Amino acid sequence: MSDLFLGLDCSTQSFTTIIINFESKEIVFTNRVIYDNALPQYNTKNGAYFFKNSVVHSNPLMWVEALELSFENLVDNGLAIEEIKVISGSAQQHGTVYLNKNFKEVLQSFDSKISLKEQLKNVFSRETSPIWMDSSTSKQCEEIRKALGGLKSTIRITGSNTFERFSGPQIRKFYQEDPNAYFKTSIIHLVSSFISSLLLAKNSPIDHGDGAGMNLMNIKSKEWDLKALEATAPNLKEKLPTLCKSYEIIGNISPYFVDRYGFSPETLLVAWSGDNPNSLIGIGLTEKGKVGISLGTSDTYFSYMKDLYFDLKGEGHVFGAPTGDYMGLICYKNGSLAREKIKDKFNLTWEEFSEILNQTPPGNHGKVMLPYFFPEIVPFVLEPKIYRFGFGEDDLEGNVRAIIEAQFLSMRLHSEWINERPKEIYATGGASANREILQVAANIFNKKIRIFKISDSAALGAALRDVKSYYDFLGKEIKWSKIVSRILHIQNCEVIKPSRNYKELYADMLEVYRKCEDFSLKNGQNPEKIRKEFIKKYFKNKKN
Ligand code: ADP
Ligand code: XUL
After folding, report:
1. How far apart are CA 60 and CA 127, in angstroms?
2. Which CATH fold topology does 4-277 show?
3. Which of 301, 386, 537, 541 has CA atoms 20 to 30 A from the CA of 483?
């Protein structure tokens, strides 16, 4: 018998399962259900429905079916399911699931002979769920921000400015556009607390990590903020689950899963959290000075924070960290899907894309792109638009290097508020498999980048949170650093070193990039003078 710990991740494009054996220091199983491929009946594209007017939703029943497929996979692979001691999970942040009065009853009377999907057919008061890619709530953001006393006050109360994708503005929009359905909603879950409610067979709490991404939780007291609730929608408090610590054991697994898949009835459940708080643990960021970049559907830059700092400019966010402290985060919509736009436009494979990065010079002959293929969060851009300085849309080499340099220059520029200076950077997410992309990042940040072989850091983070809560529960507390080092083997991770040759070049290019952004988005000065100087300094023998 061994103690196994299960981490799940309901992310934008896929549902991941990871099992770890803490004693033998191994990841014993991983599996990924990609929604578009495994569940084509839902007709999603990259896991989502892209409607008009920047509305982006997904389907909660698809997530339920993905959970079922994942558990069936454990059975099919002959895993020792009864040896799983604890389950926790991760989910894409901010997305909301709207449930009617049937939900509670259905949870209480799960029948293990019938699939969950079948039993949950009539529990939704809104069939689809707005997700983090939705940017249709500018009006509601403004209304809530105003009611909370303006930008700085909103940030100090909730940890973030109001953002289009955050749950509060989304809930307000639903209430305004479909008040009947809103009033028929008994409970509003986050994606994380929704899936966790199924495992628990009762309404599960929302943890402080994911709760902070709603513009509804007071970031200091970690309770629902009554003023924010009032600014959002009527009777909202009674429609929200309770809040809890991220390491809280919320109960045992429901008999449904014991009967249907063979879990032990003793299996404990730890509160689920958002993918970013989970990734913080999944790549071992449990101390100051450690920074992560996650290159998934969204790109994120995040850092553990012992103390609470705010981005009073309003671009970044503060979430609860699973350790009980805080994390700072900036999030880009134009992550992998924007990189894919360039890759697909020129019919490239990732290998060909990478080869071009290898063959083009850092600084890109002064060609600068602002890549807003989708509405962007950082900096705030509502209408998709690509700005190109010094090159055109058909310049293959120019575009490939420009998008990658733009993404990391923007991260360097907009993460300045997080007062924890990075010593080194830990990379995760689908695109972290790409060494050439990471080499550009290492050069731009002028920091070492460690790559995790496992790109499923969110699911792994959930499994590591299981371990922490389990040993705390047994009264045998183990330090976070010990838990993460036992499984992550950080010393063995491949390291990409920055080339010293480009330190100055990228410091200069950052200023060019800053000017291009200011010019395009804030009516700043024309950047051509500084861009030409940059070209002269680094590419003087070459033609622009
Ligand atoms: P999420 O968890 O948000 O669903 P992932 O972390 O799984 O997303 O990342 C998926 C993305 O990874 C894909 O959209 C794809 O563009 C990107 N990706 C996969 N392999 C590579 C590669 N070799 N180079 C660059 N990007 C890659
Ligand atoms: C973070 C954010 C995304 C989602 C999906 O604020 O919106 O990272 O969590 O990954």
Report:
1. 8
2. Nucleotidyltransferase; domain 5 (3.30.420)
3. 301
